[in-house]
Amino acid sequence: MTIKAIFSTIAIAAISTMATAQTTEFTVKGLKVIFKPSTKQTVSAVMFFKGGTGNYGQEQEGIESLTLSATTECGTSKYNKDDFKDMADKYGVNLGGSSSYDYGNISMSCVKPYFDKGWDLFAQAVTNPIFDEKELGMLQQKLISGLKEQEGDPDTKLSDMAMSTTFKGTRYAFRPEGKPETMEKFTKDAVAGYYNRTLLNVNRMILVVVGNLSIEDLKTKIEKAFGALPNNVVATMDAPRSFQVNANTLNSEDRKLATNYIMGVMGAPEATTPMFNAYRLAVDILSDKLFEEVRTKRNLSYAPYAYVSGGFRPFAAIYVSTTKPKDAVTVMVDEVKRLRNNGFKEIELRDAKNQFATSYFMKNESTGAIARSLGVAEIKGTWKNEDTFLDQINAVSLSQMQQVFKDYADGIKWNYLGDAALSDKTAFEMKTK
């Protein structure tokens, strides 16, 4: 190991240990709160709502995204839409709401001197949104227009194909952002009812705050703003689990495009286990290999890559857009097979760890990013996994990485969007074993 790598490892361990000591959790009137002090000049607060697509059926795809967007876009009982926006603009307060597969959120970020103003807007958006019918209708049409634009985007279409086929029959086949045909049916009563009866429940909510604040002052603010939240029984929600792909399949759609879009989905271990971090490192190395072999050496694609999605149903994906799909897929499978059967090198693991450390610090440069990372980790199991992330990455061994890649790079669910005449099934049937 080089001197640079040694010092990098020491720094990672020291910084992550220090971060663990700073973060605290407490409960205010039944609401779980995670607080991380920061010396930054911005303060961020994120209210998480557990469940995501698990909170509704397929006929309601998009209702949570619309509802949470509306909390900061359609006014509150204290501020109408224009007053809310004017105050946010005046004090530089950034607010928004969104939803994904496993959770939704309402977020706020502002500079420290205007935290009281930002907190007031945030608290009103969470506790007293009015879902003004006119404003909600305008927001609805805006979101529908965006969804229709996405329908023409090949990458979006490919991603939808991959999720709907891979997770057919489960809530992960839903589109959290919705579809035009479902989005246009939602009424004010449906949206308000969904928020007040499903989401606004202390047993479904987690508050994360990151900033240079007094913890006692923060507790007072939280109790005043959120001390009277509904406290209703919540049905048992999904828990993280592993996902396995044991055989190759091909889902294709013929479309005349300038290039062909391909995504292969592989399994992944449960996102809360140490082996998941080993798998992330392995797939990160795979991504570098795909770039080298597919683009640099053979010029078959501009940007092939691989990644791991760490939701409650995790998976790995390999992606390429190319005019020569058979050649590109053959090279990609060969790389998966080579790493699966011949193993990784110690230097590859070390470099991958250093890349993760760099990306971790870059990702968490803002208080908003830190708050989101802590909240997502808590929803999956515990925020402590985020605070000790670099320690966990640094602890991954070569044998762990080799074993987990062998366990989950077993089969590939392929998705192909493009010229059907170039979709050679023999390439997609190639085994990784």
Polypeptide structure, described:
The protein has 433 residues and is of the alpha+beta class. It folds into two domains: 22-226, 2-Layer Sandwich (Cytochrome Bc1 Complex, Chain A, domain 1); 249-428, Metalloenzyme, LuxS/M16 peptidase-like (Cytochrome Bc1 Complex, Chain A, domain 1). It has 17 helices and eleven strands. The protein has helices spanning 3-22, 63-71, 81-91, 115-127, 133-150, 154-166, 180-183, 188-199, 215-226, 274-297, 325-342, 346-363, 367-380, 384-387, 389-395, 398-408, 425-428; strands at residues 24-28, 31-37, 42-50, 94-99, 103-111, 205-211, 249-254, 260-266, 305-309, 315-322, 413-418. A six-stranded mixed sheet has the order 1-2-6-3-5-4, with helices on both faces. A five-stranded mixed sheet has the order 7-11-8-10-9, sandwiched between helices. A hairpin with a 5-residue loop joins strand 9 and strand 10 (315-322). Helix 1 (3-22) runs antiparallel to helix 15 and helix 10 (274-297) packs across helix 12 (346-363). The longest helix has 24 residues, at 274-297. 45% of the residues are buried.
